[in-house]
TrEMBL record, chain A:
Gene3D superfamilies: Aromatic compound dioxygenase (2.60.130.10). The keyword RNA-binding does not apply. Belongs to the intradiol ring-cleavage dioxygenase family. Residues 34-170 form the Intradiol ring-cleavage dioxygenases domain. SUPFAM superfamilies: Aromatic compound dioxygenase (SSF49482). This is Protocatechuate 3,4-dioxygenase, alpha subunit. Coiled coil: none annotated. NCBIfam families: protocat_alph (TIGR02423). GO terms for molecular function: ferric iron binding; protocatechuate 3,4-dioxygenase activity. InterPro entries: Intradiol_dOase_C (IPR000627), Intradiol_dOase_core (IPR015889), Intradiol_RC_Dioxygenase (IPR050770), Protocat_dOase_a (IPR012786). Keywords: Dioxygenase, Oxidoreductase. It comes from Pseudonocardia thermophila.
Automatic annotation (TrEMBL), chain B:
The lineage of its organism: Bacteria, Bacillati, Actinomycetota, Actinomycetes, Pseudonocardiales. PANTHER family: DIOXYGENASE, PUTATIVE (AFU_ORTHOLOGUE AFUA_2G02910)-RELATED, INTRADIOL RING-CLEAVAGE DIOXYGENASES DOMAIN-CONTAINING PROTEIN. It comes from the Bacteria. The keyword RNA-binding does not apply. GO terms for molecular function: ferric iron binding; protocatechuate 3,4-dioxygenase activity. GO terms for biological process: 3,4-dihydroxybenzoate catabolic process. Pfam families: Dioxygenase_C, PCDO_beta_N. Belongs to the intradiol ring-cleavage dioxygenase family. This is Protocatechuate 3,4-dioxygenase beta subunit. Residues 81-109 form the Intradiol ring-cleavage dioxygenases domain.
């Protein structure tokens, strides 16, 4: 059987290969129910990381994926967002709030972060602050130590806006997940 | 069309130890403040992880020929890079987007932050996209990139390489890697290449020269097969509400 190809860093010039004009638009800015999820990527010194890319993958508002492994069928929802960080480490994705899949998990967005200085991607999840009951029953959140759980929760930031900062290292380090 | 999600999800097999670099790798200095200190928490694969973006765009007509994106031809050795994208079960990964980026023949990137004294090439941008066919095959034309210096340590040079980004068909299969060229004298000195602990795995990042695939009086050819994660052998029992 073929053996896996190893991971390597995206390096400092990732923008050359990974820039899409509409990468951050999972849905158009003016789509009904559009939300903005945004934040800053920082390093262990608290400095912004200007050469990272944040990628998101999520279900649609009904909790479905446009993918053959979802037996409920797809709605044509792209589900994928990609935003390179700006010089101040900021990123921003326009999407809809994912619905509950119906398998006991709270609504969530899977996130990959790739950067210069990361030899492999790191993975995390965004949960929503207005889903307290669902979050309390979520099987993954239950495995995260209580004192670090808040790093997986987006922060309300005005109507239709959620803030999700990603701290790669140090105080308040984001919980990263082994997939 | 059913209305309930699958109650059993077949996950993806973990990578054997030594296949991927450890994030904390002091020889590559930029890891120092960026590698997380906490151990990651296991995310058992559920529907979000076994699905993923099945994107074929935005690949345009000249995207698979990096020598044809400008008015003139770029300087350097014209090469064809081709191969197959497979999973570790041996199945081809069809219709998947492969994104590539690289330095020019002199080792300079067409990027504002790359300022070392090597010439830019007005006829070379160095980014391309190609989608695998129904058998997982891909192919693109480019020029052989040069080695380039970086400031990781005194007299540090990266071996010539092409950056590759792949999605596969599931979130778990996402991979970004670098393809290297055979017999590069810089391999022993490069902390990024050597961040892969297992020597056999490291060698899987090196393309092979393929005389049969060269185009006479046109281009040399290098083969680079890419292997993404395959499935777990037994379905994961999903505890559901
Ligand atoms: Fe590079």
């Amino acid at each position: 059987m073929p053996e896996l190809t190893p991971s390597q860093t995206v390096g400092p010039y990732l923008a050359l290969g990974l820039t899409w004009p509409d990468g951050h638009l999972v849905v158009p800015e003016d789509a009904p129910g559009a939300i903005v999820v945004h934040g800053v990527v920082t390093d262990g010194a608290g400095e912004p990381v200007p050469d990272a890319v944040v990628e998101t993958w999520q279900a649609d508002a009904d909790g479905r994926f446009d993918h053959p492994e979802d037996p409920r069928g797809g709605s044509g929802f792209r589900g994928f967002g990609r935003c390179l960080t700006a010089p101040d480490g900021s990123w921003r994705v326009v999407s809809v709030k994912p619905g509950a899949i119906g398998d006991g998990q709270a609504p969530h967005i899977d996130v990959s972060v790739l950067a210069r200085g990361l030899l492999d991607r790191v993975v995390t999840r965004i949960y929503f602050p207005d889903e307290q009951a669902a979050n309390a029953a979520d099987p993954l959140l239950a495995t995260v130590p209580q004192e670090r759980r808040s790093t997986l929760l987006a922060v309300p930031d005005g109507p239709g806006r959620f803030r999700f900062d990603i701290r790669l290292q140090g105080e308040g380090e984001t919980v990263f997940l082994a997939v | 069309m059913t209305t309930s999600p699958p109650t059993h999800v077949r996950g993806y097999a973990p990578a054997p130890a030594g296949t991927h670099p450890n994030l904390d790798w002091p020889a590559y200095r930029s890891t120092e403040l960026r590698a997380p200190k906490h151990r990651p928490i296991l995310l058992p694969h559920r529907l979000t992880e076994v699905t993923g973006p099945l994107l074929t765009g935005p690949a345009g007509p000249a995207d698979n020929d990096l020598t044809r994106q400008h008015a003139g031809e770029p300087q350097g050795q014209r090469i064809i890079v081709f191969g197959r994208v497979l999973d570790s079960d041996g199945r081809p990964v069809p219709d998947t987007l492969v994104e590539v980026w690289q330095a020019n023949a002199a080792g300079r990137y067409a990027h504002q932050n790359d300022n070392w004294p090597a010439p830019l090439d007005p006829n070379f941008t160095g980014s391309g996209r190609v989608v695998t066919d129904s058998l997982g095959n891909y192919s693109f034309t480019t020029i052989k990139p040069g080695a380039y210096p970086w400031r990781n340590h005194h007299n540090a040079w990266r071996p010539a390489h092409i950056h590759f980004s792949l999605f596969g068909r599931a979130f778990t299969q996402r991979l970004v890697t670098q393809m290297y060229f055979p017999d590069d004298p810089l391999f022993p000195y490069d902390p990024i290449f050597n961040s892969v602990p297992d020597e056999a795995a490291r060698k899987r990042m090196i393309a092979t020269f393929d005389l049969d695939a060269t185009k006479p009086e046109w281009a040399l050819a290098y083969r680079f097969d890419i292997v993404l994660r395959g499935r777990e052998q037994t379905p994961f029992e999903e505890p559901h509400a």
